[in-house]
Amino acid sequence: MSMIRSIVRGTGSALPARIMNNRDFDGVVETSDEWIVQRTGIRNRHIAGEGETTVSLAEAAARRAMEAAGVTVDEIDLIVLATATPNNTFPASSVQVQKRLGMRHGFAFDVQAVCSGFVFALTTADLYIRSGMAKRVLVIGAETFSRILDWEDRSTCVLFGDGAGALVLEASVGAGTAADRGVLVSKLRSDGEHEGKLFVDGGPSTTGTVGKLRMEGREVFKHAVGMITDVIEASFEALSIGPDDIDWFVPHQANRRIIDASAKKLGIAPEKVVITVEDHGNTSAASIPLAIDRAVRDGRIKSGDLVLLEAMGGGFTWGAVLVRW
User: Fold this and answer.
1) Domain ranges for the chain
2) What phi-psi label fits residue 155: left (phi over 0), alpha (psi between -120 and 50 degrees) or beta?
3) Per-residue pLDDT at 124 exceeds 90
4) Most buried among 71, 95, 201, 254, by the most CB within 10 A?
5) Does the pLDDT value for residue 1 go beyond 90?
6) Distance, CA of 180 to CA of 7 (rounded, Å)
7) 157 annotated active-site
8) How many Cα atoms sit within 13 Å of 287 on the Cβ side?
9) How many angstroms separate the CA atoms of 8 and 260, rounded?
10) Average model confidence (pLDDT) across the chain
11) 182-324 matches 3-174 in CATH topology
12) What is the Cα–Cα distance from 289 to 122, expressed in whole angstroms?
């Protein structure tokens, strides 16, 4: 039976000009390149400078995605922007991007699920398309986590970077089978019992300040692989497929050890895993679209490929999406 699918028309990304490598932490915190690489796989990350914000990076990524898709802003109905580091408490950063793009129609809103944000935003955009409320959607993940880091905490400040990635989704009629192009299945989860394991210690309604990122790294690692496996296996079951059926695995780029352990547990071949954590660090909601854009532009992800996305973030939130390019 035919059904509306959300197909990916184009991708784009944007990174701050400044690259901070592991050796740049000398004199900042007690750490080393060897320590960081061994525990995380990270060698570099981009750090936003003056004039570079979540909104400016999101705008740049959105423009590149629209250019790749061959569409103009007049053809976009909705902007869904995933971020935990908005330019302002309000208005939503998506509305500010809407203004910068010159979009005077449609609607825009932010999604906040921290590192899972892009998966949640993509799922939300797909629901709007399948309901008929939108035909083309800009889905953006954008972050400037460097602005909420405690630069004296070596357990967190070495992990994160800034950036933005975007996709243009478009409504298309499919046959209703796993062979269709577009978003095929999404699985989302959350469990607030874990809120104290990864959080920011401030907010408008509590401290009246922005706050700084705090994390219990071992606890996050302990839960990550199991939670990721849960939603991926549920996604496989929904389509009656297995790990051998996917062409590419694009995980949230938080930690190389988590990525490797998850792929191994799921039986996903290492050569199918797209990894950018070495160059970007953890860019939270931006990490998946940044990795997607790289893999699309270097020719790895091609039309017809079955791509698995997954992420886990503070809350905890976690989720997976299967999309055929």
Assistant:
1) 3-174, 182-324
2) alpha
3) yes
4) 254
5) no
6) 9
7) no
8) 35
9) 27
10) 97
11) yes
12) 10
User: What SS3 class is residue 38?
Assistant: helix
Q: Determine how many CB atoms are found less than 10 A away from the CB of residue 4.
A: 16
Of 115, 157, 255, 280, the active-site residue reads: 115
- pLDDT at residue 52 in the model: 98
Does 280 participate in catalysis according to the annotation? no
pLDDT number for residue 316: 98
CB-CB contact of 44 with 74 (8 Å): no
CATH for 182-324 (3.40.47.10, 3.40.190.10, 3.90.550.10, 3.40.50.1100): 3.40.47.10
Angle at 228 between CA 258 and CA 250, to 5 degrees: 70
Instruction: Report helix, strand or coil for 91.
Output: coil
252 catalytic per annotation: yes
Tokens of 73: 């802003």
> Number of C-alpha atoms within 13 angstroms, CB side, residue 32?
3
Amino acid present at 105: H
Q: Which residues of 153-190 are buried (b: 16+ CB within 10 A; e: fewer)?
A: ebebbbbbbbbbbbbbbbbeebeeebebbbbbbbbbbb
- For 225-284, how does the pLDDT look when each residue is reduced to its tens digit (9 = 90+)? 899 999 999 999 999 999 999 999 999 999 999 999 999 999 999 999 999 999 999 999
Residue 147 CB neighbours (<10 A): 15
Residues 126-176: tens digit of each pLDDT = 999 999 999 999 999 999 999 999 999 999 999 999 999 999 999 999 999
pTM of the model: 0.98
Topology of the domain covering 3-174: Peroxisomal Thiolase; Chain A, domain 1 (3.40.47)
The whole-angstrom separation of Cα 205 and Cα 90 is 13
Active-site annotation holder among 22, 87, 255, 282: 282
pLDDT in tens, 61-103: 999 999 999 999 999 999 999 999 999 999 999 999 999 999 9
Of the residues 46, 194, 252, 280, only one is catalytic, namely 252
Q: How many CA atoms lie within 13 A of 105 on its CB side?
A: 9
